[in-house]
Structures are given as structure tokens and as C-alpha cells.
Hints:
The chain contains 10 helices and 2 strands. The protein is mainly alpha-helical. The protein has a two-stranded parallel ribbon with strand order 1-2. Helix 2 crosses helix 9 (160-169). It catalyses: Hydrolysis of alkylated DNA, releasing 3-methyladenine. Its EC number is 3.2.2.20. Keywords: DNA damage, DNA repair, Glycosidase, Hydrolase, Metal-binding, Zinc.
Amino acid sequence: MVKRCAWVTEENLYIEYHDKEWGVPVYDDRKLFEMLCLEGAQAGLSWWTILKKRENYKKAFDNFEAEKIVKYTDEKLKSLMEDKGIVRNRRKIESVVTNAKSFLEIQNKYGSFSNYIWKFVDNTPIINAWESIEEVPSSNELSDKMSKQLKKDGFKFVGSTICYSFMQSVGMVNDHTTDCFCYALCSKEI
């Protein structure tokens, strides 16, 4: 039997996310933007809620293409508020547009969002060695620093806990527990 992190349920969607995405380093700007937006949407909710709606989010937000999102009209925002396939929270929906603007400014300034965001971990994933899920933090000094900088750069829904979840999801930190089969896979040199 395959051993996974204790937070993974028997749901196939959850298993696939854990086994193929969570903790795997991501350097693609569009994918990084998607994950930052989805982590923000998760605020106050469970990741499972967002994961189940992920495909709806991609469709609703033009596959997280920031260049399209920054052009959203009030009419488009109103239609998003009526979209039952996503979390219909006005502030969270508007934050995606705000974040798209900041994201494009960061790309322009740093050459890519990936260059900007990966500098927080000196361009190398942090490999933790947690033996149990209880040891895994929900935030740390690094996520505090990232949150503060993202907010300074105009991003919304980027608190420290959201930033830490984001870092986990895109492989900036490997928080698979050491008994999980993915731990070794995500600990290899990139």
C-alpha cells in the first residue's frame, strides 16, 4: 500500500493533486499565478472546497491568463458573482483582478513572476523533514516576509498562512512527511 501524507483523503481528485502536484516545484508564471489565486480563494475555507471547483475557476477566470483578467469589466465581475461554480465572494473575485495587475507589473520589473517569487527561497526548494502532519507549520518567518512584500506590491488575499500554503503547493517547500512516498520524489535535486 502506498503511504501518503495524513491529510490526503480517499478522494481520487485529492490523491491525484497530492501525488502529482503538491510539493513539485513550479516555475511557470501562469501556473504560479493560478495557484496564488486559488490559495487566496481558499481563505477561510478548505482546500478540498477549492480543489473541487478548480476547473470551474479556470473556465471562469480565462485559465488565469493575467492579460485577459486585467481587462475585466464590471459586467464580467457581475457574471462572476453569479457563477455557482466558484466561491462567490466579491472581495475574493475582485482580488484576482487586482492581483493580475500586480502580477503583470512584477513580470515587467523582474522578467518573470517566477524570478520574483523564487527569490524568497534563494531559488532552491526548502526540504523539510517532518515526521508527522502535526509538525507542519501553517506559516513561518519566510511566509510572513513573502506576505508583507506581496501586499507592498499590491496583491490581495496573501496573508502569511495563504503564502505558506502557496509555497507548499508550488514546491517552494517540501512539506510531505518523511513517510510519504512523495517525500523522496520532491527532495531530489532539481
